[in-house]
Design brief:
23% of the residues lie in helices and 34% in strands. By secondary structure, it is α+β, with helices and mostly antiparallel strands. The strands form two sheets. Strands 1, 2, 3, 4, 5, 6, 7, 8, 9, 10 and 12 form an eleven-stranded mixed β-sheet that branches. Strands 11-13 form a two-stranded parallel ribbon.
């Protein structure tokens, strides 16, 4: 049964972010740390956790960055498309997101239930995959499954913050080892730096783009249609097509996770 996350879910998520038990360090450079769980036997279904210290970006600003779908199109160059489908409560909605995988892998997409919780000076956003009758799997994407994905943003000093990103995704396929390695050593650190850079640029961008519009803070601004929770079902991984990409070799093609990934206005 689909349910909206409660305080216990958010507390559990925070504990996973802050705990070091059972996590193996994969990367620690330039202020970015990456850990994983469940790498044994080349499993694709590992948990990844990332952490970055963001100077000169407040927790509140980074929270806005991660909510603002219009701004996401400016900085998330791996994103193909994202949009909100409908709202469930003042702090929960259903949305769609598709992303560009490293070539020659097929691109993935998700339909997720997302919920958020401001806690004083800290913020959390978490999601998991659901089925919506009007948004079935598409032929041009592999429908992947988020078992648990989210952000914890903690205030750090007068105008800084620490960002944690934790994710466990079933990509619906057997991935080659080079992909698993590339994610922890290259894609994940670059993604964290990109969010940080987006935070540094957000205030200037927002001043020119509907500065007062923040429906994640002011729910009365939300004009999305209401989604009935009964319409949704848990998206179980076994219900989706599994594809075998384990034999694919890495192509020497450009992957759009470059550090200077900001398109011009």
């Amino acid at each position: 049964m689909v349910r909206i996350p409660d305080d216990a879910d958010f507390n559990s998520f925070r504990e996973q972010c802050e705990s070091s038990e059972g996590w193996q360090s994969q990367y620690n450079k330039g202020g970015v740390m990456v850990w994983n769980q469940g790498q044994e036997a080349g499993r694709a279904l590992q948990k990844l956790k990332m952490r970055i210290v963001c100077k000169d970006v407040s927790a509140e600003t980074l929270y806005d960055v991660l909510h603002d779908t219009h701004y996401r199109k400016k900085w998330d160059t791996n994103m193909i498309e994202t949009y909100d489908i409908g709202r469930l409560t003042v702090n929960a909605d259903v949305g769609y997101y598709s992303w560009r995988c490293p070539s020659p892998l097929k691109n993935r997409d998700f339909v997720t239930l997302r919920s958020w919780l401001p806690l004083g000076n800290d913020y959390m956003i978490i999601n998991y995959s659901v089925k919506h009758p009007k948004y079935p799997p598409r032929k041009d994407f592999v429908r992947a499954v988020s078992l648990q994905t989210g952000y914890l943003i903690q205030t750090n000093g007068a105008n800084g913050c620490i960002l944690y990103y934790l994710t466990q995704v079933d990509p619906k396929g057997s991935l080659p080892k080079w992909v698993v390695n590339k994610v922890s050593q290259f894609v994940a650190p670059k993604a964290m730096k990109k969010i940080y850079k987006a935070g540094l640029k957000y205030q200037d961008w927002k001043r020119k783009h509907n500065p007062g519009f923040k429906p994640w803070i002011y729910p009365e601004q939300n004009t999305l249609p209401t989604v009935n929770l009964a319409e949704l079902e848990i998206q179980h991984a076994h219900e989706l097509e599994n594809i075998d990409e384990s034999g694919l070799s890495e192509e020497k093609t450009h992957i759009s996770d470059e550090e200077e990934g900001f398109p011009k206005e």
